């Protein structure tokens, strides 16, 4: 059974190779090849899952050794795959949701002439992410990690003819590089500390290392996680990454990429458990990002950017839970999986809305779409109920568990983290209700657009009007709606299924470990508080966007709103602190180089030149002056000889 | 007669020769002054030879004379061609070898 593991990666990798090398001949069938290979990987994953279920809890780790990659003395890097409960969970999520997104893309990218290439990149993305979660050592994980970075760059910038998309791709790549530096430094530190970077030996020898080194390794791993998972302070790429085609956003936000950071923290749990200081930093990063993303999500009028803020916030929940240690690992992963379902569903829904609305993303130009897109409305609606944590749906179970764990951390810390997660739940309800109301309810604001345009610009050319004609919202084709329906089922039932008899807990516990927290509040108190806060969030959004008509042009808004529309000034911050700071640093270094270093060099040259210019005068061409110097020299020699003899 | 007197004479001749080389401009005179210095050296060699009672100094005096004769041939040839090209035998006029 172990031999199947490599096939998981091989299938999408083969797809990427065939599609990218195959050329135009495959244009007609390329998308189906890509989808089938992704689905094949999912089938293999299900077979392996069934195999694992047939074993006892402690015996569910499969190792496949392919070959030794770098055999240099003590530096042994193997290509070895490890399939345990944690990787299995990820593999199922990646291949399952990934396959659905492939299927969806068949319809979504139908009119794009570079569709074959798009599927090649999607397959590459899956292969890289699978390599990341299946690797048995950090170096191999790093290969997958970089592969994910590359694939995301290619996909975010897929419409490279748009300058904004090309810039966004570059931004994502560069911000990720910062995190990647963290991971590579962490691996180097591990090698110097433990002499190896394979999971088993490293986690086994954690107790041998000094506290300082463990904290350093853990913080570097956290930096890496921040880059991939778009956590503060490396969050700025996520919003711009919306420039990619919508299925890419769904893939990045649900199944791949942003989940990699959470995976890294949970996988390295043994290191984090031994470095409590680093764990505290992890929780702080999670808590800050949770609020940051939620606030940004509240102000965005672009439906995809609002959802991107929401992803940031939800990943913040997961990172916070992962920072709680064994109390939270299982719930971080559980929320990750349920989030994978409903966020993929929400993004695919948003894509479906855009598909029917001439690629419009401004929610102020939507409204009342529920009549025109019933399936999108229902699936999006179920995803919405799941993410705000409506009782009984997926998000309710996983998010409540995280909130409970946060309180169970104990002490002041627990109270603060718990309060943050509770506030986050209310804000989540607010911004998601806002998205829902602005898109599917209210008056049909897209209808007035054409007439308004005419009254302003009555004599515009008819051809120009055709391009900006009033959209005719329509339901998307079956290849797009089926994945949405499947994901909606996941959004509704996954949470209950996982919580039923604590099945998910028992499944993951052997890998991540688990300990029950000692919460100062009863489960009932927390659940009802969450529910009440959720209702308050929904109510506030309804009062603002449901009862009153939504203005087609965004009002100026308060200072906070305007800041949130600019992503809470993250880019301005980066520009002022990093770009300007870097420029000033460079300039001062150039100045030092010009004055000090060049000064020494030029000064030496000038003084030698000046001295030789003066010495040159001695050579005046007069034979007699040369004769004088000869006599002088001879006289000196004689005098010196006499002096020496006298002494 | 005390041989040291010959040494005084040699020193005097050398000094006259050296002074002539340094202060005279005419190449012929400079040249003669060089010869004077050589001969002063020869005189000193011969004197020392006599004083120490071996022949080394007298042998070296012969060497010096041979070298001086060869030098006169080359030196006079240079001075003659210099005079032909410049119509002057002043050493200061031949001062082109400088930067």
Question: What does this molecule look like?
Answer:
- The complex is a heterodimer of chains A (647) and B (99).
- Chain A has 647 residues and is mainly α.
- Helices cover 73% and strands 3% of the residues of chain A.
- Chain A is built from 26 helices and two strands.
- A two-stranded antiparallel sheet of chain A has the order 1-2.
- In chain A, helix 3 (85-108) packs antiparallel against helix 21 (478-499).
- Chain A is globular.
- Chain B has a single domain (4-86), classed as Helix Hairpins (Orthogonal Bundle), CATH 1.10.287.
- Chain B is elongated and about 50 Å long.
- Chain A binds chain B through residues 616, 619-624, 627-628, 631, and chain B through 18, 21-23, 25, 30, 91-92, 94-99.
Oligomer: heterodimer
Strand content of chain A: under 5%
What structural class do the secondary elements of chain A suggest?
Answer: mainly alpha
The value of Rg of chain B in angstroms is: 17 Å
Provide mean pLDDT of chain A, rounded: 88
Helix content of chain B: over 70%
User: What is the rounded Rg of chain A?
Assistant: 31 Å
Largest sheet of chain B: none
Mean pLDDT of chain B: 90
What string gives the helices and strands of chain A in order? Answer: HHEEHHHHHHHHHHHHHHHHHHHHHHHH
Number of H/I helices of chain A:
26
- Structural class call of chain B reads mainly alpha
Q: Give the biggest beta sheet of chain A.
A: 2 strands, antiparallel
Distance between the termini of chain B: 54 Å
Element order of chain B: H for helix, E for strand: HHH
The 3D shape of chain A can be described as globular
Q: Please tell me what the overall shape of chain B is.
A: elongated
Q: How does CATH name the architecture of chain B?
A: Orthogonal Bundle
CATH class of chain B: Mainly Alpha
Q: Got a strand count of chain B?
A: 0
**In angstroms, what separates the terminal alpha carbons of chain A?**
99 Å
Keywords (chain B): Cell membrane, Membrane, NAD, Quinone, Translocase, Transmembrane, Transmembrane helix, Transport
Family (chain B): Belongs to the complex I subunit 4L family.
Protein name (chain B): NADH-quinone oxidoreductase subunit K
Transmembrane segments (chain B): 6-23, 28-48, 60-83
